[in-house]
Amino acid sequence: MNRNVRKHMEEAAAFLRRRIAQAGQPLPKIALVLGSGLGAFAEQVENPLLLPYAEIPHFPQSTVAGHQGRMVLGGIDGVPVAVMQGRVHAYEGYSADEVVFPTRVLGALGAEKIILTNAVGSLRPEFALGSFVTLSDHINFSGMNPCIGPNDAQIGPRFFDMTRAYSPRLRQLAVQTASEQGWQMHAGVYLSVLGPSFETPAEIHFFHTVGADLVGMSTVQEVIAAHHIGMEVLAISCVTNLAAGIGKGELSHAEVMETGERVSARLTKLLTALLPRLAALPKDT
């Protein structure tokens, strides 16, 4: 971990607290990160305070299509939220510390729960395009960890457990909410790669052999950082393509964007119903 992380976190969090107070809003209870093509949910935020990442001290800037690069603060059915429309990735040239900097700042603001969404490739044909999958676990194949280096005990412990990286009770509520809306949310294991190239068919075969159901280029670093600072995590993936060697034709980011945008209304409906339920849960012990 970079030695300046805590100083930069405090400066970014102080800036956000001032802007939130000036807008007459409470601090967020739940944070959300919206992945490729999934940013439409932010339009549901009540009394939105819109802050481009460029205005927030030390925030990394999104450079990928489908990531608008702004934070939206406000409410969903009375629940104070901080919604990130887009994230940054290591393949853009950012360090692990930079990738997870927004996660750490959201934790410093007081958000106890974080919902991470992403676009993924499916290694299982039954997870069709447009399916949503709640992550039950992950395999970190990126070669990165945001907690490498000197540890700041005021941020989190040197060693920390990842047995329940993805909160079972939050996952259960997400699956239940989807069922009540008339559709099935699958569960699966996510494997994180560095990118930006898509995977080869041989790599996908290997990933399937070691137990992966989904593959993508984000999220795992944020999950690790969230656990390091004590946040409870729910992650929901949108299947935007079949992985190499499983689907037909070549993979493209345009396909990822098109599928994400096509099903974003379903995610919006799910999150709008789910957030008050999550906010009503007592702090996980």
Structure description:
The structure is a single chain. The chain is an alpha/beta fold and 285 residues long. It has one domain: Nucleoside phosphorylase domain (Rossmann fold, 3-Layer(aba) Sandwich). The protein is built from six helices and nine strands. The chain has helices spanning 5-22, 96-108, 168-180, 201-209, 220-228, 253-280; strands at residues 30-34, 46-52, 70-76, 79-85, 113-122, 132-140, 186-192, 214-216, 232-242. The chain has a five-stranded mixed beta barrel. Helix 3 crosses helix 6. The chain is globular, with a radius of gyration of 18 Å. The two termini are 26 Å apart. The mean pLDDT is 92.
Give the helix/strand layout.
Elements: H1 5-22, E1 30-34, E2 46-52, E3 70-76, E4 79-85, H2 96-108, E5 113-122, E6 132-140, H3 168-180, E7 186-192, H4 201-209, E8 214-216, H5 220-228, E9 232-242, H6 253-280
Parallel strand pairs: 1-4, 1-5, 5-9, 6-7, 7-8
Antiparallel strand pairs: 2-3, 3-4, 5-8, 6-9
Helix pairs in contact: 1-2, 2-5, 3-6
